[in-house]
Design brief:
With 155 residues, the protein is mainly α. It is built from seven helices and no strands. The longest helix has 32 residues. One of its GO terms (cellular component) is plasma membrane.
């Protein structure tokens, strides 16, 4: 039985490491893309229909809003990655990611075309399918927050 427990512990540890690394990679990569013209255009329908972001878009313009989002994602990704050196900062980054993913999931409700027309509320379009993946990233952010909080408590 101890062997199974050790294996489960090793799997759990590997899972946390992979989950954190994948979350950081997603945040950093997608954040860096916000400085490209095509990504500014890609997020336009999402931010213009969002009650949270449309006022910022009107004030900053599409390019500056995309850059702000990119810098935010890069910052959050860096904080999440900081767990070995600064677990509390990493927990803060993970909680910021939770807020960010809750915001992006709200686009499912506010973005025209996020649902497949005539197919019911539970039939996401291609845009909706793109957004649904943020539910997995939301779970990853919660798990990495808990992991970082536990590591911070050990110090």
């Amino acid at each position: 039985m101890r062997s199974v427990g050790r294996q489960a512990g090793s799997l759990s540890s590997a899972g946390f490491t992979i989950l954190r690394s994948a979350l950081v990679a997603n945040l950093m990569w997608i954040g860096a893309l916000k400085f490209k013209r095509y990504e500014v255009e890609n997020i336009e329908p999402l931010v213009t229909s969002s009650p949270l972001l449309s006022p910022l878009r009107r004030r900053l313009g599409p390019e500056n809003l995309a850059r702000l989002i990119g810098v935010t994602e890069l910052t959050i990704g860096s904080l999440v990655a900081a767990k070995p050196l600064a677990p509390r900062a990493s927990a803060a980054g993970s909680f910021a990611a939770v807020g960010m993913f809750l915001s992006t999931l709200s686009f499912l409700l506010t973005t025209p075309g996020a649902r497949q027309e005539g197919e019911g509320v539970f039939s996401p379009s291609l845009v909706g399918q793109f957004l649904v993946k943020d539910s997995v990233l939301l779970g990853a952010a919660l798990v990495t927050a808990a992991d970082a909080l536990m590591a911070g408590q050990d110090r």
